[in-house]
Amino acid sequence: MKPHIITLGCSWAFGEGSGYTEGMTAEKYESIQHDPEICYKNGWRKNLVDHFGFTHTNLAEYGSGNDRQFRLAKRFFLSKTFQKIVQSNQQVIVLWGTTSLNRYDVWLNAEQHYAKVLLNNVEEDLIRFGNEQDIFAYAIKKYSYNETARLHELETNIMHWNQFFQLLGIKNYWYDTLSSYDYRIRPKNFFDLDVRNRSLVSVIAREHKKITKTKLLMPMDDFIYCQENGVVNEYSLHPKKPYYKAISNYLIKKLEGVL
Fold it and tell me: Which CATH class is domain 4-100+147-256?
């Protein structure tokens, strides 16, 4: 029976922007930016599924923060869908990507659903839009957000879910997506935890440097490098299709070493 892989993470796991092609207009890009089929076909998840022969459930969402992923995971692992997977005696593998600490998942009364709250450009958005979501974001950033506290909360959740999956006999693995955080914890199921620049941003920056044989005279932030060298698209700053392929190659190699 084929193993079943469950993926969690943000837009880089969802595959956002992977349908981008050179010269595409902003209008055309926006029309395919979040298309689920295009994002799956051109992102990295399909390559993993095809390579290992997995069946697959995806919980990753574009714009999703760690908070939302933890909430969606709790809902999924209590669901009848997950119960059916367990009852089928399939091997279950969880691949989970951390994302930005300044993303929140909050219930909004005005809209009667959970909303993704990002703490980028909150002052400008409050003046421009001034809706409940913008007010909430402004208040969080001004009165609550603390990067150290958020990182410690992420560490606690990682250890909690490690214990949860271990009790269920599920193999689970973590990777950093946008930033290589300086964790106090050292779980063995975290890919390249001892590597200083381990995020997927660093993975694709290294791939470009390898292909182009680029040697930097001065250190440069990997995300800035990706922007300046066309590794990510100019509209949403997501990896172009060849670099989603590089991510899949990286994750396939990591999973081959542990499965």
Answer: alpha beta
What are the tens digits of pLDDT across the range 148-164? 999 999 999 999 999 99
Rg of the chain taking only CA atoms, in angstroms: 19
Residue 174's pLDDT band, with cuts at 50, 70 and 90, is: very high
Tokens 């029976």 correspond to: 1
Tokens of 157: 């959740």
Give the model confidence (pLDDT) of 28-57 as tens digits. Answer: 999 999 999 999 999 999 999 999 999 999
| Sequence ranges of the domains in the chain | 4-100+147-256, 103-144
Give residues with Cβ within 8 angstroms of 239, minimum separation 6: 12, 17, 18, 200, 204, 226, 231, 232, 233, 246, 247
Rounded Cα distance, 243 and 118, in Å: 25
Residues near 10 by beta carbon (within 8 Å), at least 6 away in sequence: 60, 61, 62, 63, 64, 65, 69, 97, 99, 100, 103, 177, 178
User: Which residues make beta-bridge pairs with 190?
Assistant: 174
Place of tokens 């182009």: 212
